[in-house]
Every structure is written in structure tokens, then in C-alpha cells.
Please model this.
Amino acid sequence: MRRLFPVTDVTDETAAREWSLDELAAAYGYPEPGPGGREPWLRANMVSTLDGAAQHDGRSQPISCPADMRIFGTLRALADVVVVGAQTVRQEGYRPARARDGFAAAREAAGQGPAPVIAVVTASLDLDFSLPLFTSPLVPTLLLTGAGAAPDRVAAAEKAGARVITAGEGGTVDPARAVRALADLGHTRLLTEGGPRLLGLLVAAGVLDELCLTVSPMLTAGDAQRIAGGPSVTLPRRFTLKSMLEEDGFLFTRYQRS
Model:
């Protein structure tokens, strides 16, 4: 892996070698706390082909690569909580986040648990509560739902060991309210891995602070989803390029809210 941007006096020295976990963690660190303490910071991690596909055959793995998965694991290890949409849980067979020995000391020093919490955004609570995400997580899975969620589904979720959090009225989840609810639980280092509809809702609500986008050197054609879907914004939101890494033709970009 090599750094393309920003250019520094060590840029050339990082060419053509695999970065350590410590180097990746430093490159993707969350903002330092301000005078008033740590504010919530929501970053997204997505992958897209050259022609804009976020998936192939409904999954992101075919357009990914080993370096992308190393960054994926690093971003998870830095986060307090991973926010994911219910459809992505169903399609990709989401499992609980695991503890990683390489990050154990750093997470303990940061006051974090052994692994990030998984928080599923689901208005209907239409999920299979027999999955490992609910039966064997290191920390209980959170479910972000609306006040109108069916009582029997809430009861089923709680019986399975999940914690149900109301973050919206009626049958919807309010992204801003969801971020606040997670921050109130002490989860300020937020990561979302999509899917595209959830990311689109976060963008439209103006709560996304950062996008970590892997550009895959592949073409798929077809009608696959983009990385963000759902409602459009009134005006395009401008983000600023903060860093760009490269390995084997894949670009690992990091953009932050302007």
C-alpha cells in the first residue's frame, strides 16, 4: 500500500508494502475530543466499482480485495458502534463484530469494549432473531426503530437479547435522533457500512461526517445499486478529500464534510 494524498516526506517510503494495523489505525483515526468532550462522528465505509456499482449479485464482497478487508477490519476496530440497515443484515448474513487481538490494547486504552456494538436500523423489526447476530454477540445487538414498531416484534427482539431503542415516530427512524440516541449511550465513534438505502437516508438527513470510499478497478454494468439511494438532497453536499491510499489498483479514499 502507498499513500497518494496528502503527499508527505515519507510518501515514497510507504510504497509497495503492507501497512501494519497500527499504521492503518493512525491513518483512519477519529477526530480528537474537543474542549466539551467527544462529539458523535459518523463515518461510512463503502466500496464502488468504476461504473458506480456498490454490489455484484447483491453482495459487496465480489468487488472488494484483501486490502479493502484490512481497512474494513480496522474501521470496525476503531468504532464504538457499527450502524447497518436491516436489508443488509438479511442479504449479507451479518454476524456479530469480533474482538481482534491486534486492537485489544488500543480499545481498552480508549475506554472501549472488546468489539463494537452492532446497531441495526429497522422500522419493522422483521429480522431472524435466531441468527448469531442476536444469539452470540460479545455485546448485545441494538435495534433502532420507530415508536410505532409492533409490540410483538419488540417483545421477540428483547427476548432474543437485543436492546430496542426508539429513534423515530410512527414507522420510521429519524437519522439525527438515532445518532443522538447512540451518543447518549456513550457511542460517539460511529461507523456505518450501509446498505445504500441507509446511507442515502443519512446523507439526506445531513448527519454523515465522513465517507471512506474504496474505488474498485472493476466494471460490472447491469443495474446494481449505487453506494447511496433513497431520497435526493436539495443541493449536492460538498465533501473534502482528506487522504488517498492505493494498492493493486484499488483506491482507498477518505472524504470529510466541508
